[in-house]
TrEMBL record:
Pathway: Cofactor biosynthesis; molybdopterin biosynthesis. It comes from Pseudonocardia dioxanivorans (strain ATCC 55486 / DSM 44775 / JCM 13855 / CB1190). Its EC number is 2.10.1.1. GO terms for molecular function: metal ion binding; molybdopterin molybdotransferase activity. InterPro entries: MoaB/Mog-like_dom_sf, MoaB/Mog_dom, MoeA-like, MoeA_C_domain_IV_sf, MoeA_linker/N, MoeA_linker/N_sf. This is Molybdopterin molybdenumtransferase. Belongs to the MoeA family.
Amino acid sequence: MPTTRAHEQQVRAARSGRAVDWHSARRRAHAEGRPLPGRPVELAAAAGLVLAEDLVSRVAQPAFDTSAMDGYAVAGRGPWTVLGEVRAGRQWPGCLRPGEAVAISTGAPVPAGARAVLPVEDTSRSGDEVRGLDGCAPEPGRHIRRTGENSPAGALLADSGSVVSPAMLGLAAAAGHDDLVVRPRPRVRLLITGDELVTAGPGGAGRVRDALGPTLPPLVAGLGGDLVETAHVQDSFAALAAAVGSGAASEIVLVTGSTSVGVTDHLHRLLDGLGARAVVDGVTCRPGHPQLLAALGSRRWLIGLPGNPYAAIVAAHTLLAPLLAGLGGRPVPPLRRTAVAGVPPAVDGHTLLVPAAWDGDHLAVVPGHRPSDLRGVARADVLAVIDRETRDTTVAVLSL
């Protein structure tokens, strides 16, 4: 049924009364995202994910006594007779006796009986005889990395809840792991509504080029989601209902547009019909007020973003980012306070989010941040969060 202007205003006023402040919206979204069950993934696919189990070493590191230098493994006092050489990946058979040595490479197993390793630059060699330059007996164990020196078998290497870094992948591999048990990336379906949108070429004659289709997939990935489907949906209740109810399996359905109370905004009516549980229905921020988060059932949510591009980006950082973080076992994306030049005045009763970029060693607000304007955020490094409590140029910022 078409909505009248008066009806729209009544509905808007009612929903405005349910809106929450920006900080509360982020906390609610994060609290919704109870971590997904862990599953094993290959090391190559684990970077950036969160450990769902403690990482424990399967082997001692090093797994054998190994040389820390290129030089000579020596037994007893010198001079030493060089019997041969041992390189990485090889082993010396038998045991060295006093006065004997083998040339050795960094990382090679140290022969049994060796007292120490002499670096090649600290020796002189003539034929099969090698001497230390200082003439002294080497300190026992010098330049030998002992078995388990870094960590014994069974040692705790990283706690559950740790983010898997590139270095942790190397640590896991050295500890004998081929995969890690991690929280998987939450799956996201993206539904873009708007009969006025075109996906190629310029707009014109009432048509507008879709800016969110190119923007949101990398943003979803950067925030920790796995985008499994993107679809453009007609501005009708039936089309939206069909799109929300079908498609690839996902934890999150992300809808752009249709979040307000106009004649083509069907999302609230659809959620009411589905019996969805409202988590956030409107946020007192600018831009991005008409955003929402609703639970569709067990471990399935719908996030509605405004149709205006910059407002949609703000809403994604408000609701999608913390929900993905919670599902992935990560903390809510942090805010930090820093000085920002060009901060506009706070908006009474609303949090204002404006793009800012580094200019040398300080941040400055970037012009161009109307709800439909991407010029500012395209050049920005952070969002400056301006609350009514802001009294100076030191504000909270959120990394983009």
